[in-house]
Amino acid sequence: MFESHFQSFDAARDPSSGGPRLALLRAELKRRGLDGFIVPRADEHQNEYVPPSAERLAWLTGFGGSAGTAIVLAAKAAIFVDGRYTLAVRDEVDVKLFAPLNSGETTPEAWLEANAGKGARIAFDPWLHTPAQVARYEAAAKAAGAALVAVETNPLDAVWADRPAPPHGMVAPHPPRLAGEAAARKIARVRKALARVDGLVVSDPHAIAWLFNLRGSDVAHTPIALCFAFVPASGAATLYIDAGKLTKSMAAALARIANIAPPSALIGDLERLGAAGKRLRFDQATAPSRLTRALEAAGGVADMGADPIGLMKARKNATELDGARAAHLRDGVAMARFLAWFASASRAGITEIDAARALESFRRDTGALRDISFPTIAGAGPNGAIVHYRVDERSNREIGPGLFLLDSGAQYVDGTTDITRTLAVGKPTAEMRDRFTRVLKGHIGIATAVFPVGVNGGQIDAFARRALWEAGLDYDHGTGHGVGAYLSVHEGPQRISKVGSVPLEPGMILSNEPGYYKAGHWGIRIENLIVVEPRAIKGAERAMLGFETITLAPIDLALVDVRLLSRAEIAWLKAYHARVRKALSPHLDPATRKWLAAATRPLAKG
């Protein structure tokens, strides 16, 4: 029933296709009396992974990243990406057509204000933008003397002749033995959390998957079904989903806890609720403007804020945590088999794609792999310096002497994994070892952190950067993101980053992934997943928290400069490797077990 997507290594779209497509879009805008159009990399739910039918930005520009926006005007166009993609965008997009800009330096709104002509009509699709996004564009357009116009139908769709059909993946149950809590109880908890509103409109499919204990197959790498839901303050919840995605048994199970309605009924229901003067909560991060406009136009009030399901989903229960540990043990065995293979094959001229395929095959051998949790980042040499590099047949490099960065993950029914290892191929340079060890010190700084209840990820992010800062170095991404329970590998609201503001709570799973990137040469990242847990400290005057590391895989000792490590850091690495060896060895063949023993040998202070 579940439709696995896994990874394709097809060459990226030819940037030369952007010219004809841009001309088609501009002709359509002119036909409609519009002077510009905003093209986000988004679907109706602001998903990270979107179905092929929603890859409008990629179709128009060739850019294949997970975040970005293009603005097309009559005589100029620009594409905006964050720091992860500033290198990749120049390889994928015709920069003569689309000016590539770092959104951290020039926002789309600022560019629009500076470039939209007075009296211009700039269009947007209200299904693809949140109300907050629309408000920013409206302010920019007004400042430029232009007008922002919501379109009924997307003009890009009108010229995308071979646009794929919307997904129609089947839905499967996520049973209590994996979820740890019945859906009816979750719905009751959500209803109890609603205050001063008449109901919650759930626009995030990940939240719906958690709430109704279901998993889908509409997008790659994340088991969600594209749908909406409504939880009233009293009365039955409604799930707005295509009935064709439900088997008879699944439909019957859902009908016991909610009404089932087609997605087309949602706008009408919101209009009726609006006419009754209802005040509804919308998720500020994922709700499309089209929904809030429907409610407010009819007389209702859109209460914008955080969906309470987000925090509930982030706090994993005991069953989910046990599943995560089991998934990481299974994944650790696959990683050990891969790393042993890589150590023996690294002189045989294998490529990035060879390595990614080999790792996926070892994960398939577990018999439990449902999908990879994101496209594998397999970067040799300079490709490793591209933070979100995605290998394809055109960019594929042979893995030669130097560094190889491998960031990958898996989806199992009991848990989601995400792990990065940086591997030395041949003898590393002193600079490589220095940078790697500084990253390792930061990784250990997070892994061993102890902090009071109420501390957020922004307050501990610097623990990962200190050793790099001392050498005048840094990295331009967050140190850690949240991870779901057989859901999104990038889950909020928890995070460890300079801008992390949500307090860390027991049960939250996060990544611990500091890095360093020498542009044009190589990249380094060390990533494990960690769980927030209570930490007992003798004599403590406050309730304290710390982290349990659940990823199980050796860290390449050939890259460690032991002279830079403190005795406590050496002890942590020794203890971690001892735990990895003890957990994985019983599940490995003799040859791999022998390799693992050498890979996890203790280091002595030099």
What brief labels describe this structure?
6-stranded mixed beta sheet; 33% helix; alpha+beta; Creatine Amidinohydrolase, Chain A, domain 1; Creatine Amidinohydrolase
Give your account of this protein's structure.
The radius of gyration is 25 Å and the shape is globular. Helix 4 (108-115) runs parallel beside helix 5 (131-143). The model has no long low-confidence stretch (mean pLDDT 95). The longest helix has 28 residues, at 318-345. Helix 3 links the parallel strand 3 (77-81) and strand 4 (99-102). It folds into 3 domains: 15-159, Creatinase/prolidase N-terminal domain (Creatine Amidinohydrolase, Chain A, domain 1); 172-313, Creatine Amidinohydrolase, Chain A, domain 1 (3-Layer(aba) Sandwich), CATH 3.40.350.10; 315-448 and 508-531 and 548-599, Creatine Amidinohydrolase, CATH 3.90.230.10. The termini are far apart. 33% of the residues lie in helices and 20% in strands. Strands 4-3-2-1-5-6 form a 6-stranded mixed β-sheet, with helices on both faces. The protein is an alpha+beta fold.
Furnish the topology, listing elements before pairings.
Elements: H1 18-31, E1 36-40, H2 56-61, E2 69-73, E3 77-81, H3 88-92, E4 99-102, H4 108-115, E5 121-124, H5 131-143, E6 147-150, H6 155-159, E7 172-173, H7 176-179, H8 183-193, E8 199-202, H9 205-211, E9 214-215, E10 228-232, E11 237-240, H10 248-255, E12 258-261, H11 266-275, E13 279-283, H12 289-297, E14 301-305, H13 309-314, H14 318-345, H15 352-364, E15 371-372, E16 377-380, E17 402-408, E18 410-412, E19 415-416, E20 419-425, H16 430-447, E21 451-452, H17 457-460, H18 466-469, E22 480-482, E23 491-496, E24 509-512, E25 515-518, E26 522-525, E27 528-535, E28 544-549, H19 567-584, H20 590-599
Parallel strand pairs: 1-5, 3-4, 5-6, 8-13, 11-12, 13-14
Antiparallel strand pairs: 1-2, 2-3, 7-9, 8-10, 10-11, 15-18, 16-17, 17-20, 18-19, 21-28, 22-23, 24-27, 25-26, 27-28
